[in-house]
Amino acid sequence: MTDAERLALIDALNAEYAAVYAYGVIDAYASTERDRLVTQYTAAHRARRDSTVETLTAAGTTAPPPDAAYTTPFPVDDPIPAANLAVTVETDCAVAWRSVVERADTELVRRMGIEALTETALRQATWQAILGAAPPTVAFPGMA
User: Fold this and answer.
1) Does residue 135 fall inside a structural domain?
2) Fewer Cβ atoms within 10 Å of its own Cβ: the N or the C terminal residue of the chain?
3) Do the domain assignments include residue 140?
């Protein structure tokens, strides 16, 4: 694993840590009809977090721990801000995973980045559709 790949994976891991934390906030305020979706997406971020830690560890890198807490970029106190936070989280993850794809030199890291970017782009589109965005997708997920 190259240094560029390692740094990109650490950035993506930090985005996944933040996503797991944020989905706890989202879960507290999302409408009850979104419970299954929030549970599914939280599990997906936990799985991606864990696989990223495993990949870094296998490459001989100690994965950094998550922060003790994270700050949401805006107040979340009802379902609409909760859905907007989900869009923000998925956007941040898309940016991080796109960077992994761009910096990947090995097939393993490139495949991991593409899979993660695709997953987060689909989750982002789902939340955008829930919020009524038209279109709910972007042409190039993860472009800052």
Assistant:
1) no
2) C
3) no
